[in-house]
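Curious: why these numbers?
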Amino acid sequence: MAAESTDRVKEIAEHLLAALVEIAELKPREFTGFPADWSQQVAACPECKEYRNHPIQQGICNTHRKPIWARESHDKHEQSILGIRAVSIARAAITKAEGA
């Protein structure tokens, strides 16, 4: 009986340790919204060429700036939900450990 109890404790500890490792390694998900040929689009865009020496636009028109804004929004959102993802991982590990 004691051996079964020890095995259960080890199994629970392994589940919880795996969850802690996953939480420790959490990183924001990468943004994938840039078109593959975005740089070529910017280089070929007449409006972007007009903004080439502009101190704020820096050679990128508002149409081609949209993926940059989307990435900034995505990164901000990802940073804000890291804690929620960690809680979700922890809850799943606890549930799994309780069922073990």
Observations:
- The first helix runs from residue 2 to 24.
